Amino acid sequence: MSSIFGFYYVVGLLGHMGWPRRRGLLNSEAVFNCLVLDSAIDQMIDWAANIGAHRPDLALRIIATMFRDNDWESEKSFDIMEFVKNSKKSWDEGGNNPRLVVKPFRFSKSNEGINPKKDVISSKDVKDNRIRTALEQYFIESLIWGLVNHGACKIYFETEGKEQKDKLPMYKEAGLDVDSIPTMDSLLKDGEDIIKGYEKEVRPLSPIPKRLQNDALSLGIRID
């Protein structure tokens, strides 16, 4: 697998929020706040699941792009049916929440490994291959989960939207500039716009291989 979809989204979102930032006047190291990084990863997981559940053609083209170097006729090629089969147990444990399905690493709670400091992580470390690989794994698992769990994904976003709407007064009291919660349509449009940006800045999406299309149909995935 070779892509930067997860990394592209996370870094782009963090950049939009003004990260990375300099550690201080006497320390010019560029860093990300770990809580903010965790939040960006959560949003990336939601984004991937949303595309999978509501834009199956686009999701399959993304998968084809992520495995663009594969020989789709080979037995060693990526097998979406096998992926789903091997993931079913952990998916069932996660219920309707893609974040609980994917179980991303929490940088703000880490006390070991690549980032023993809990408050910030350096920009250099975020670009480390281990983190980039993890982001792509989170992305594709959430994308495929959404593909084969359209109903669960719909329930998740409806529930999440209601919870966020109920928290609006709290956000405003805290001084956050949040006037409304995005609708499903606006989330999908934003997701499609991000992919358009990816195609412009990185590479065009690949066509859907026949094998991938047939396997998707066998899984009951609706293809427009």
Descriptive overview:
Helix content is 62%, strand content 6%. Strand 1 and strand 2 form a beta hairpin. By secondary structure, the protein is mainly alpha-helical. Strands 1-2-3 form a 3-stranded antiparallel β-sheet. It is globular and about 60 Å long. The mean pLDDT is 86. The protein has one domain. The longest helix is centred in the first third of the chain and has 21 residues.
Strand residue content = 5-15%
Please identify the oligomeric state.
single chain
Cα end-to-end separation: 26 Å
How many helices in DSSP terms? Answer: 11
**Domains, number:** 1
Secondary structure layout plus pairing:
Blueprint lengths: L4 H12 L4 E4 L2 E7 H21 L1 H11 L13 H15 L3 H5 L17 E3 H4 L2 H20 L1 H17 L1 H6 L10 H18 L8 H9 L6
Antiparallel strand pairs: 1-2, 2-3
Helix pairs in contact: 1-2, 1-7, 2-3, 2-7, 2-8, 2-10
Main attributes of the structure:
224 residues; mainly alpha; 6% strand; globular
Task: Give a nutshell description of this structure.
With 224 residues, the chain is mostly helical. It has helices spanning 5-16, 34-54, 56-66, 80-94, 98-102, 123-126, 129-148, 150-166, 168-173, 184-201, 210-218; strands spanning 21-24, 27-33, 120-122.
